[in-house]
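hey so u asked for the seq, here:
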Amino acid sequence: MSTVRLYTRQSDKTLLMLEHGGRILNQRVYVQLHFGDMSKHYLDCYDWFAREAARRAPKPEGAELSIWCTPNVKNCLPPIEGTVVYAVDVSEEQVVFFDDAKWDYVLSHRYLPADDADEAAYRRHLREIGVTNSFEFFEGRYAGKYPEETQRVRDSWKRVFDPVERTCPTVCGNIWEIKREQIVRIFHPGETVVPI
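ran it, structure tokens below
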């Protein structure tokens, strides 16, 4: 079974999770605490991602949301006060790879085109129905009025999981949990995250 080395910056409170439970899990409440008033928007997106990711890698008991990771050490955020960076080795079957640049379409509630021709066709379609952008199907003046269009946009988001090279600067590899035995190294504030 092959493994993948991933890097992720997390709150230093996760060290207590490891100490007391032997693993780190991501919960919806953490998103609520982090994003406050904007948490509903982010949770809608993260919940969608969690449902799709669970189809690609089994979700362990207790996990609600995935843990954002990168296989590219250069893309890992450095540890700052209140955080640590974990370098972990995870079985390849437990990793959900996706393109973080495409994830921005999900966060913006926009249609994720397959290619330039698809994007042009979708823009024509929006003009034909008198809509400026797909965001308005979710939170704008057309919210709830075009359920078929909302579903069309959501269906397009699955392209975030289209195969992406692991060397691509925008590739991410999310996992459901970090077990103590998977940790190769923990980087603390003031330390430089380097490949190991």
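The beta strands are 3-11, 23-25, 83-91, 96-99, 171-174, 177-179, 183-187. Residues 86 and 186 are 5 Å apart (CA to CA).
lmk if thats what u needed
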